[in-house]
Amino acid sequence: MILRGLKWGLLLQLAVGPVCLFIFRAASLQGFGAAFAGVIAVSLADGLYILAALRGARMLGAGRRPGGALYLIGAGTLLLFGLNMIAGMFDLSLLPSIPLSQGTGGDSLFIRAFLLTASNPLTLLFWTGVFSAKMIELRLGGGELLQFGTGCLLATVLFLTGVALLGHLAHAFVTPLAAKWLNFMTGILFLYYAFRLIVKWIVKPAEPTA
C-alpha cells in the first residue's frame, strides 16, 4: 500500500507549483545543501497536513466553499514572496526587516519553505479529499490508509530531492546576472499562482497549486 501511495503521490507531484519552483531556484543559487533543507521543511509541512487529513480533519463542511480569508492568506504569501523576488532584480528588498526574506543559509531557507507550504489553504482540503476518495474506492482500513499516506509523503521527498539535484547541476552555470533573471522570472510565476488562487476563490475552489 505504501508503494501504491508513492506512485499516486508522484503523479500529483507532476503538477509543478510554486514550491517546486522555490526548491529549484534555491538549489541553483545556493546549492543542494540549502535546497535540501527546504525539501525537509516542505515534507514536514506536507506531513502535518497529511496526518490531519488522515485523522479526518475537515476545514470545510459538505458543499461549502473555503472562507475568503484562507484563500487570501495563501495568495498574500505568494504575492509577498513573488514581489520580493522581482525586487531582487533591481538589488532591492521589500522585506528588509524580515530576516528570512533575504537569508542564504539552510536555516533561513527551511523557514521560508515551511511557511510557503503551510500557507496554502487548500492543501489540507486536497489531502482530505484524496484520502476520503481512496478510502472508499480501495476500501482501506485505518492502517492501510496510513500506509497510503506515508507513500504520498515519500513521493514529496523523492520528487523535490530530484528537483534540488537538477537545480544543483545548474548551479555552476548561474552567473550573477542569470541569478537576477531567475529571481525575476520565479517572482512572476509566483504572482501568477497568487492571482490564480484568488480567481479560484472567486469562481470555484479547486485543487491546491503546490
From TrEMBL:
It is a multi-pass membrane protein. It is found in: Cell membrane. Pfam families: LysE (PF01810). GO terms for molecular function: amino acid transmembrane transporter activity. The lineage of its organism: Bacteria, Bacillati, Bacillota, Bacilli, Bacillales. Keywords: Cell membrane, Membrane, Transmembrane, Transmembrane helix. Its main location: membrane. This is Putative efflux protein. PANTHER family: ARGININE EXPORTER PROTEIN ARGO, ARGININE EXPORTER PROTEIN ARGO-RELATED. The chain crosses the membrane at residues 36-57, 69-90, 110-133, 145-169, 181-199. One of its GO terms (cellular component) is plasma membrane.
